[in-house]
Structures are given as C-alpha cells and as structure tokens.
Amino acid sequence: MKRNLFLAMCLLLGLASCGQQGKKQLTEEDMGAYLFVFFSDPTHSLFMATSYDGYTFTAVNDGQPIIAGDTIADQRGVRDPHITRGPDGAFYMAMTDLHIFANRLGYRETQWERDGEMYGWGNNRGLVLMKSYDLIHWTQSKVRVIDEYKELFGEMGCAWAPETIYDPVEGKMMIYFTMRYHNEETRLYYAYTDDDFTKFVTVPQPLFEYPNPKISTLDADITALPDGRFCMMYVAHDEGIGIKMALSDRINGGYQYDGRWIDFEEQACEAPNVWKRIGEDKWVVMYDIYGIRPSNFGFAETTDFVHFTDLGHFNEGVMKATNFQSPKHGTVIQITREEAERLENHWKK
C-alpha cells in the first residue's frame, strides 16, 4: 500500500523521475509554473500558454499556433490536445487527428472522411502522438487506430480525445480515448504504447461502462489522488451534457459510477481536465463550455473531490486569459520555471 501511495503521488504531481535511480527526483518544490495546451476551431492547430500563479495564462508565440495541424495530421487538422510528463522525464502529447472544416477548406471532397449517415459527425480514423524532452523539439507519429485493428474496430466511427498517463503497475504509458460503433453511443477505451510513443502495443480495451448503455460517455481525464485511488472525470450525455466523475483503486478499470454533476454550467460542456495548484491541497477541474457563444472555459475547485466550488469562466472570475480567447479542449500541467521561461523565450525569436 505504501508503494501504491508513493506511485500515486508521483502521478499526482506529474513528476518525471520518481523512483528513477541516477536521476534527480523532482518534487513539487521544483515546480514554478503551469503549461496550458489547447487548440482553436478556426485553426485546428496547437497552442501553448504559460502561467506562474495558476490564475493568469498568456499564450506563447504572441497567441499564434506553435504547431500547425496541417503539418502533422492525416486530416490536416488536430483537436483535443493532452499533455503529461512521463517517468523518463519526457512530455507526452496526444491529439485527435480530425479537421471538421476540411471540406470547406478544400482538404477533402466530402464533408467527412467516410459516410456521415453511417459513421457519424466528425468521423475519423486515428490519433497524433508526440514526444519531447524540452517542449520545443518533438517527435511525432500518426496511429490509425481503426485501420490497424480493422477486424475488431473497422466499423468504429471515431477515435477522439486521447489522453495519456503512466501506469506504474504495467510500467507503460497508458493511452485512453473515445470510440463509437458506426454512429451509435460513444464509449471509453484504453491501450498501452511503446516507450517511444509511436504505436500501441496492446489491443484497445473498454475502460468504463455507464449504467445505462444508451448514454454516450467520452473525454475521460484520469487523476491520481493522494490516497492512492484514481479519479476519472468524463462527459456524459444524460438528460444534459456535462461533467461527471468516477473513482477506482486501479488506473485501467473498476471505476464506480457517481451520479453527481461536477460542472456548474447551464449549457453543454465537455473536455474535463484536472490539475493541482502548486504548493496547495487544491485541484482545479477545467472544462470546455461549447454550449455558449463565444465558447469559453469553466473552472471548479476542490480540496477533497467531494465538494466543488465554482470559479467562473476565463475573464469572468479569478481565471484570466490575457492574449487569447475561445480556447478549445485543453490541458494544464505543472512545469518548472526554467521550462516555462525557455518555452517563452524560444517563441519570442
């Protein structure tokens, strides 16, 4: 149990080298900044923003994309970026390979890659995986999940919203994401990747089953808790569209349904992401409120994952976005001050 708690704390803090002999073991005291990755609907490209207090975020590169989606994706656009730090000290980023406006922009002749009536809105085949040790230089691979596992998943309509977390039991990076059969309800799946983060090394398996199988679940986000358990925030389409949570003693399954809504929104929201405030026993639940115009991010805060406090929206409360607006489906992680400054300086050139 003590080892489970130790490993959970490593995951909780997003530290690179807990338990790695010969490496400096980063602690929360080493963390001095936050990194926010997101995309935008107009560009379908990757953006990054930094913060030193966890409240005010400023996009690097003067608010312009740092990686163009048409340079790394089969569909010439990316969505839903998620970033985490692995046990090797590297940053792992995964994104949906999808451009919802590709037909309008002349990237393809049809509205979607495949027939919309059969395979649904935004149908796609795969994901983009990227890895970096400095947040500046990246390797990248495309994983066409539906094609590579055609016998099992060839009739799946989508592979969306990938996220990655290190599984200390398996000793591998675990990737989890959303799929659906044809145009039916979406479901959550997981698999493990190779060390270079270029491919899956296991067949995707179901991660969570909602009590009502007719309800779509998507956009999972897993957080290690201080007591050794794991919290999964996710989206449920259940008489409304919003954020729910489930708890488990293991990272890759066993999540117990909790019927409470976590978000404070009257309109539809998605893409939950949980991050810890540096030096405080406080966690922020961030989510994309796509049901309002213009779209915005909402925030809630908790100290115990039982009670949640509404922090409002970007620029409508304590959370501020200084040089960007209407971010979409993003992630915040802790980084060191040196990493933040290096990233900012690189994009000033």
Structural class of the secondary structure composition? mainly beta
Radius of gyration from the CA trace? 19 Å
Number of domains: 1
Strand content: 35-45%
CATH topology: Tachylectin-2, Chain A
User: At the fourth CATH level, what is the homologous superfamily?
Assistant: Glycosyl hydrolase domain, family 43
Spans with pLDDT under 50 lasting ≥5 residues? 1-9, 13-22
Distance between the termini: 49 Å
Indicate the overall shape.
globular
Number of strands: 21
Largest sheet: 5 strands, mixed
Q: Quickly give the CATH architecture.
A: 5 Propeller
CATH structural class: Mainly Beta
Percent helix among the residues? under 10%
Strand line-up of the largest beta sheet: 20-3-2-1-21
- Mean model confidence by pLDDT: 94
What secondary-structure arrangement, pairings included, does this model have?
Elements: H1 2-13, E1 33-39, E2 46-51, E3 56-59, E4 78-85, E5 91-97, H2 116-119, E6 126-132, E7 139-143, H3 145-148, H4 150-153, E8 156-167, E9 172-181, E10 186-192, E11 205-208, E12 217-224, E13 230-237, E14 241-248, E15 256-257, E16 270-276, E17 283-289, E18 296-302, E19 309-313, E20 320-321, E21 328-335, H5 337-346
Parallel strand pairs: 3-20
Antiparallel strand pairs: 1-2, 1-21, 2-3, 4-5, 5-6, 6-7, 8-9, 9-10, 10-11, 12-13, 13-14, 14-15, 16-17, 17-18, 18-19
